[in-house]
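Page 37, continued from 36.
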């Protein structure tokens, strides 16, 4: 009985630390508001590792990339290395024959695959309380399947729906759009302390 109680305490303590770190992830994403003021989806060759497009611009994935980088996770390097070792497990939507370290980590379908492979997937639901600060959510924006990604905020609407920090075309914004599009993925990052 004491072992079960100790194990429960340890699990709850770890969960509390994880949630605190993930709330900090939302804060890092929020810090991009007013800095990243435009959207530019053009292909750009960027340095490797830790490469980035200019801070004043980017796409939806850049919000996630920059926020996770603050916790020591370089998605550019991590996705590139995983894709290089497991290329056939990643979506073949662009007709590529190999990896491209300037763009692979900036594509939502690749991030979905990477996050799933990391064990970060949690169930997709229509219950607002299931989406915690710092969670990552992916959507299809329309019937054509235009992919999008954002970070769940620690701020909520009056109805209790978490806001989303993302760049959907006008720079990094914090908006009420969690259930505005078809959710295709829900991920809870495990961050280094």
């Amino acid at each position: 009985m004491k072992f079960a109680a100790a194990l429960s305490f340890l699990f709850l303590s770890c969960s509390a630390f994880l949630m605190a770190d993930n709330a900090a992830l939302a804060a890092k994403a929020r810090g991009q508001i007013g800095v990243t003021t435009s959207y530019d989806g053009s292909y750009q060759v960027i340095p490797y590792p830790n490469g980035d497009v200019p801070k004043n611009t980017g796409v939806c994935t850049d919000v996630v990339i920059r926020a996770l980088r603050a916790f020591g996770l370089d998605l550019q390097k991590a996705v590139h290395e995983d894709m290089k070792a497991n290329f056939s497990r990643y979506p073949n939507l662009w007709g590529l024959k190999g990896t491209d370290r300037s763009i692979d980590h900036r594509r939502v379908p690749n991030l979905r695959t990477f996050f799933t492979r990391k064990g970060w997937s949690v169930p997709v639901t229509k219950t607002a309380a299931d989406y915690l600060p710092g969670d990552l959510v992916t959507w299809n924006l329309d019937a054509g399947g235009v992919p999008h990604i954002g970070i769940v905020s620690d701020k909520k609407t009056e109805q209790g729906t978490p806001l989303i920090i993302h760049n959907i075309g006008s720079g990094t914004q914090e908006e009420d759009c969690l259930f505005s599009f078809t959710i295709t993925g829900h991920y809870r990052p495990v961050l280094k302390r």
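Helices lie at 2-30, 60-69, 75-85, 108-117. Flag for discussion at group meeting. The chain has one domain: 2-187.
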